[in-house]
Amino acid sequence: MRNSSWKSFACATLALLGGVEATTTPDLATLLSKQSNLTTFYTLIKTYPNILLQLPSYQGVTILAPNNDAFNKIPYTVLNNAFKNGDEGVITNVLEYHLLQGTRTAAELVPGAPVFIPTLLTNETYSNVTGGQVVENVEQAGNVVIFVSGQGSRSTLTQADLAFTGGVVQVIDSLLIPPGNVTQNTESYNLTSFEGALYKTKLLETISNASNVTLFAPQNYGFQALGPAIANMTVEELTSVMDYHYVANEVLYSTDLTNGTKILASQGENITITHAGNNVYINSAQLLTSDILLANGVMHVIDNVINPQGPGAQPNPAIGTQGVVFANATMASDLPFTSDIPCSTSCPVTTTSSASGSVSAGATTTHSASKTSTTSFSTSKSKGAGAAKETGMAWAGLVGAVGVGLIL
Ligand SMILES: *[C@@H]1O[C@H](CO)[C@@H](O)[C@H](O)[C@H]1NC(C)=O
Ligand SMILES: *[C@@H]1O[C@H](CO)[C@@H](O)[C@H](O)[C@H]1NC(C)=O
Ligand SMILES: *[C@@H]1O[C@H](CO)[C@@H](O)[C@H](O)[C@H]1NC(C)=O
Ligand SMILES: *[C@@H]1O[C@H](CO)[C@@H](O)[C@H](O)[C@H]1NC(C)=O
Ligand SMILES: *[C@@H]1O[C@H](CO)[C@@H](O)[C@H](O)[C@H]1NC(C)=O
Ligand SMILES: *[C@@H]1O[C@H](CO)[C@@H](O)[C@H](O)[C@H]1NC(C)=O
Ligand SMILES: *[C@@H]1O[C@H](CO)[C@@H](O)[C@H](O)[C@H]1NC(C)=O
Ligand SMILES: *[C@@H]1O[C@H](CO)[C@@H](O)[C@H](O)[C@H]1NC(C)=O
Ligand SMILES: *[C@@H]1O[C@H](CO)[C@@H](O)[C@H](O)[C@H]1NC(C)=O
Ligand SMILES: *[C@@H]1O[C@H](CO)[C@@H](O)[C@H](O)[C@H]1NC(C)=O
Ligand SMILES: *[C@@H]1O[C@H](CO)[C@@H](O)[C@H](O)[C@H]1NC(C)=O
User: Fold this and answer.
1) Nearest residue (CA) to ligand 1, atom 1
2) Closest atom, ligand 3, to C-alpha of 205
3) Do 76 and 224 fall into the same domain?
4) Residue 300, SS3 per DSSP
5) pLDDT digits (tens, 9 = 90+) for 94-131
6) Which residues form the FAS1 domain (predicted)?
7) Domain containing residue 72: CATH number
8) Spatial separation of the C-alpha atoms in residues 209 and 202, rounded to whole Å
């Protein structure tokens, strides 16, 4: 009832806007209808018009509009099922995530440092952070403007500054992926020992059900390098260690991790941030991959487990791999805590691993992962490109048909 009246209001709004022949700045419908690369997006907006109702409540919006090519890539992403099944709830959330608060021209989207821009996505499933889920805006060499979303997915700005009466449209080449929960991210970033330790200590439930969290997640190698020194800890001891990797009630993106900052971990001791050269250290552990967006905050991958018993540990920037900071560490052949992950349909592999096995071996930059949605989801990838592509085409056709049927 409420939904359908929203919808008809939005339809009326869209129709009204569309009927006015713009002399200067066009309205959204007029603008979109004239962009041959945005026909799928335009159809989608008409199919799910209730998101447009949010527009008037903001002082202008920036619409990151995926081009037609972007929709053809859906089968390779975690969004495949939602779009294939026409799941209105998920699609509405996805569309809201493409609306940035405020009007941002391309000139404002070329930051010196990463910028975390709030969107209109506020559904708690994807956005249990204060002020709306964010998209990371970064600049790549050659003034290439990138938007990083969930699972480290990267979308590139391909066409800038299409002004409309309510703001501006910026065209991107891939859909933004709304951030997932903690376990979805620990799994796609291969942080299985960290995840297992969260299960073992039952901290996973607490952390997953909190808003505004920051996690420092050691790569598997960090746990493996400790062996029994961590695997044999009592649950209380392990809880203290894991709590030292968790900051409650604060979402600290990389831009907040400035040199000399002290952060009070949930465990009760401070963590110290140190910058040296191009590297950033969390106590003595090196930051490997920063700013993995979580539905309820942010996660950063570090090379080693940090120790609340020695909060003053300092890095040695002269060496590439920082040493362990626990007594009696012995390199283990297996990955600690992976057997604590409950086994359901897709059980994580708990085999031995090479010493170099890590989510981002070689990644020494301090910001965003180069992972893409396609590399993060092995299940959708393994289906076979041919079949997936056909699904995508069929879906695009379906939206066309549904859109015309419902709206026109
Ligand atoms: C439309 O997309 C094609 C290929 O995706 C690209 O070559 C072309 O430049 C785009 N047109 C505009 C106006 O961006
Ligand atoms: C949030 O999104 C989920 C998944 O699409 C949906 O099931 C849920 O109803 C939404 N919650 C609200 C409050 O809209
Ligand atoms: C994360 O989301 C997945 C998919 O919805 C779900 O199966 C899983 O239980 C969630 N994990 C947590 C810790 O809530
Ligand atoms: C999550 O927190 C709410 C209150 O903040 C509580 O009612 C709910 O039971 C919690 N859920 C879990 C799984 O801990
Ligand atoms: C969001 O966080 C609040 C605590 O601030 C919690 O009560 C609620 O259950 C969380 N929502 C989700 C979907 O996890
Ligand atoms: C760790 O625990 C295992 C199994 O309980 C035991 O065999 C091993 O000796 C312990 N190692 C150390 C260093 O305490
Ligand atoms: C989340 O963080 C914001 C700013 O960091 C703060 O204003 C807000 O009160 C926090 N919310 C909760 C539930 O902790
Ligand atoms: C953490 O650091 C802050 C700021 O430097 C300081 O005020 C506080 O006393 C420290 N807390 C602990 C437990 O060391
Ligand atoms: C970080 O701060 C320390 C102490 O003030 C200083 O010696 C160091 O040069 C700073 N690092 C960078 C990269 O500015
Ligand atoms: C390390 O091993 C030595 C010798 O076995 C033992 O005395 C000491 O308590 C151990 N330290 C820790 C922190 O387990
Ligand atoms: C995940 O980690 C394991 C063990 O460290 C390694 O064998 C495997 O290749 C990694 N997988 C990916 C996708 O990085």
Assistant:
1) 37
2) 13
3) no
4) strand
5) 999 999 999 999 999 988 899 999 999 999 999 999 99
6) 25-176, 178-306
7) 2.30.180.10
8) 12
